[in-house]
Amino acid sequence: MNGKYYYHVPVIYVLSILLGSILLQSCAYMKKRGNDALDMFDIGVTITPKAMPDGALYIDFFNMTPLGASHVDGKLLGIGYRQAGFLDYQSENWGVLAYGSEKQGAGAFNPNDPRHARKGETPEKDWTRHDAGFIGVFTGDTPPPKYHYKECSRMVHIGWIGIMLDIRPVDIADFILGWSTLDIQSDDNIPKPEKK
What we know:
About 25% of the residues lie in helices and about 35% in strands. It has about 200 residues and is α+β, with helices and mostly antiparallel strands. It has one domain. Helix 2 packs antiparallel against helix 4 (about 170-180). The longest helix has 21 residues, at about 5-25.
Protein backbone atom coordinates (compact mmCIF):
# COMPACT_ATOMS: atom_id res chain seq x y z
CA MET A 1 0.00 0.00 0.00
CA ASN A 2 1.16 3.49 -0.76
CA GLY A 3 2.61 5.22 2.37
CA LYS A 4 1.02 8.54 1.42
CA TYR A 5 -2.43 7.00 1.97
CA TYR A 6 -1.76 6.49 5.69
CA TYR A 7 -0.97 10.18 6.19
CA HIS A 8 -4.33 11.19 4.72
CA VAL A 9 -6.44 8.84 6.87
CA PRO A 10 -5.91 10.77 10.18
CA VAL A 11 -6.55 14.08 8.41
CA ILE A 12 -9.79 12.76 6.94
CA TYR A 13 -10.89 11.46 10.37
CA VAL A 14 -10.09 14.77 12.08
CA LEU A 15 -11.92 16.77 9.41
CA SER A 16 -14.91 14.41 9.60
CA ILE A 17 -15.11 14.73 13.37
CA LEU A 18 -14.79 18.52 13.16
CA LEU A 19 -17.46 18.79 10.48
CA GLY A 20 -19.76 16.40 12.36
CA SER A 21 -19.40 18.36 15.61
CA ILE A 22 -20.24 21.63 13.84
CA LEU A 23 -23.31 20.10 12.18
CA LEU A 24 -24.53 18.61 15.46
CA GLN A 25 -24.32 21.88 17.37
CA SER A 26 -27.56 23.41 18.57
CA CYS A 27 -29.37 26.24 16.84
CA ALA A 28 -28.41 28.52 19.75
CA TYR A 29 -24.73 27.90 19.04
CA MET A 30 -25.12 28.84 15.38
CA LYS A 31 -27.18 31.91 16.28
CA LYS A 32 -24.34 33.09 18.53
CA ARG A 33 -21.87 32.64 15.67
CA GLY A 34 -24.22 34.64 13.43
CA ASN A 35 -24.40 37.44 16.00
CA ASP A 36 -20.61 37.42 16.31
CA ALA A 37 -20.40 37.74 12.51
CA LEU A 38 -22.77 40.75 12.58
CA ASP A 39 -20.62 42.39 15.27
CA MET A 40 -17.41 42.47 13.19
CA PHE A 41 -18.45 45.31 10.88
CA ASP A 42 -21.14 47.92 10.47
CA ILE A 43 -21.17 48.47 6.73
CA GLY A 44 -23.60 49.79 4.20
CA VAL A 45 -25.04 52.53 2.06
CA THR A 46 -26.60 55.49 3.86
CA ILE A 47 -29.66 57.06 2.27
CA THR A 48 -31.49 60.31 2.96
CA PRO A 49 -35.11 59.65 1.88
CA LYS A 50 -36.28 63.26 2.01
CA ALA A 51 -35.90 66.47 0.01
CA MET A 52 -33.48 68.13 2.47
CA PRO A 53 -29.96 66.70 1.97
CA ASP A 54 -27.63 65.45 4.70
CA GLY A 55 -23.85 65.46 4.86
CA ALA A 56 -20.96 63.66 6.53
CA LEU A 57 -17.20 63.41 6.35
CA TYR A 58 -16.19 61.75 9.60
CA ILE A 59 -13.57 59.35 10.92
CA ASP A 60 -12.81 58.13 14.43
CA PHE A 61 -10.23 55.66 15.74
CA PHE A 62 -11.27 53.80 18.91
CA ASN A 63 -13.29 56.80 20.15
CA MET A 64 -9.98 58.61 20.77
CA THR A 65 -9.37 60.69 17.62
CA PRO A 66 -12.64 61.91 16.06
CA LEU A 67 -12.22 64.16 13.06
CA GLY A 68 -14.88 65.80 10.92
CA ALA A 69 -18.64 66.04 11.25
CA SER A 70 -21.79 64.19 10.27
CA HIS A 71 -25.49 64.86 10.18
CA VAL A 72 -27.47 62.02 8.64
CA ASP A 73 -31.05 61.14 9.57
CA GLY A 74 -32.22 58.47 7.20
CA LYS A 75 -31.71 54.81 6.35
CA LEU A 76 -28.88 52.29 6.23
CA LEU A 77 -28.94 49.50 3.68
CA GLY A 78 -26.53 46.98 5.13
CA ILE A 79 -25.36 45.76 8.54
CA GLY A 80 -25.51 47.94 11.63
CA TYR A 81 -25.48 47.33 15.38
CA ARG A 82 -26.02 43.55 15.15
CA GLN A 83 -28.88 43.93 12.65
CA ALA A 84 -29.08 43.66 8.88
CA GLY A 85 -31.47 45.02 6.26
CA PHE A 86 -32.97 48.42 5.50
CA LEU A 87 -32.54 50.04 8.92
CA ASP A 88 -33.36 53.42 10.42
CA TYR A 89 -30.08 55.29 10.80
CA GLN A 90 -28.86 58.45 12.46
CA SER A 91 -25.44 59.99 12.85
CA GLU A 92 -24.81 63.33 14.55
CA ASN A 93 -21.08 63.47 15.22
CA TRP A 94 -18.31 66.06 15.32
CA GLY A 95 -14.70 65.94 16.38
CA VAL A 96 -11.41 67.85 16.34
CA LEU A 97 -9.08 64.96 17.31
CA ALA A 98 -8.75 65.67 21.04
CA TYR A 99 -12.41 66.38 21.67
CA GLY A 100 -15.71 65.55 20.08
CA SER A 101 -19.23 64.29 20.51
CA GLU A 102 -21.06 61.36 18.96
CA LYS A 103 -24.64 60.22 18.66
CA GLN A 104 -25.30 57.44 16.22
CA GLY A 105 -27.22 54.23 15.82
CA ALA A 106 -28.92 51.92 13.38
CA GLY A 107 -32.01 49.74 13.63
CA ALA A 108 -33.83 48.98 16.85
CA PHE A 109 -32.22 50.23 20.07
CA ASN A 110 -31.49 47.52 22.66
CA PRO A 111 -30.81 48.89 26.17
CA ASN A 112 -29.37 45.48 27.13
CA ASP A 113 -26.67 45.60 24.44
CA PRO A 114 -23.43 47.25 25.62
CA ARG A 115 -22.79 48.42 22.03
CA HIS A 116 -25.97 50.50 22.22
CA ALA A 117 -26.18 51.73 25.82
CA ARG A 118 -24.01 52.66 28.76
CA LYS A 119 -24.59 50.76 31.97
CA GLY A 120 -25.67 53.01 34.80
CA GLU A 121 -28.37 54.01 37.22
CA THR A 122 -30.49 55.69 34.55
CA PRO A 123 -31.51 53.17 31.87
CA GLU A 124 -31.26 54.56 28.37
CA LYS A 125 -34.24 54.16 26.10
CA ASP A 126 -32.78 55.47 22.83
CA TRP A 127 -29.49 56.39 21.19
CA THR A 128 -27.74 58.98 23.36
CA ARG A 129 -24.90 61.42 22.87
CA HIS A 130 -21.48 60.65 24.35
CA ASP A 131 -18.07 62.30 24.53
CA ALA A 132 -15.26 61.42 22.14
CA GLY A 133 -11.59 62.28 21.76
CA PHE A 134 -8.65 61.47 24.00
CA ILE A 135 -9.38 64.55 26.12
CA GLY A 136 -13.16 64.49 25.82
CA VAL A 137 -13.62 60.95 27.18
CA PHE A 138 -11.62 61.80 30.33
CA THR A 139 -13.00 65.29 30.99
CA GLY A 140 -16.60 64.85 29.84
CA ASP A 141 -19.46 63.49 31.91
CA THR A 142 -21.01 61.22 29.26
CA PRO A 143 -18.64 58.36 28.45
CA PRO A 144 -19.42 56.14 25.47
CA PRO A 145 -20.64 52.56 25.72
CA LYS A 146 -17.53 50.48 26.44
CA TYR A 147 -17.49 48.79 23.03
CA HIS A 148 -16.93 52.14 21.27
CA TYR A 149 -13.31 51.98 22.48
CA LYS A 150 -12.87 48.92 20.25
CA GLU A 151 -14.03 50.25 16.88
CA CYS A 152 -12.86 52.45 14.03
CA SER A 153 -15.56 54.48 12.27
CA ARG A 154 -15.58 56.01 8.80
CA MET A 155 -18.40 57.79 7.03
CA VAL A 156 -18.93 59.83 3.88
CA HIS A 157 -22.40 61.08 2.92
CA ILE A 158 -23.05 63.68 0.25
CA GLY A 159 -26.60 64.91 -0.28
CA TRP A 160 -28.80 61.85 -0.39
CA ILE A 161 -26.37 58.92 -0.44
CA GLY A 162 -23.20 57.81 1.27
CA ILE A 163 -21.25 54.92 2.72
CA MET A 164 -20.33 54.01 6.27
CA LEU A 165 -17.93 51.47 7.71
CA ASP A 166 -17.19 50.62 11.33
CA ILE A 167 -14.48 48.01 11.88
CA ARG A 168 -14.21 46.14 15.20
CA PRO A 169 -10.91 44.18 15.34
CA VAL A 170 -11.66 42.59 18.73
CA ASP A 171 -15.02 41.35 17.42
CA ILE A 172 -13.25 39.75 14.46
CA ALA A 173 -11.13 37.79 16.96
CA ASP A 174 -14.27 37.04 18.99
CA PHE A 175 -15.96 35.59 15.88
CA ILE A 176 -12.98 33.35 15.07
CA LEU A 177 -12.50 32.13 18.66
CA GLY A 178 -16.26 31.77 19.12
CA TRP A 179 -16.24 28.59 17.01
CA SER A 180 -14.39 26.98 19.94
CA THR A 181 -17.12 28.40 22.28
CA LEU A 182 -14.65 30.97 23.69
CA ASP A 183 -16.46 34.31 24.16
CA ILE A 184 -13.78 36.97 24.71
CA GLN A 185 -16.32 39.80 24.32
CA SER A 186 -18.83 38.25 26.77
CA ASP A 187 -21.61 39.08 24.31
CA ASP A 188 -23.09 35.68 23.43
CA ASN A 189 -26.01 36.00 25.86
CA ILE A 190 -27.20 39.60 25.49
CA PRO A 191 -30.92 39.74 26.33
CA LYS A 192 -33.26 41.00 23.66
CA PRO A 193 -35.02 44.32 24.22
CA GLU A 194 -38.38 44.19 25.92
CA LYS A 195 -41.30 44.44 23.51
CA LYS A 196 -43.18 47.72 23.69
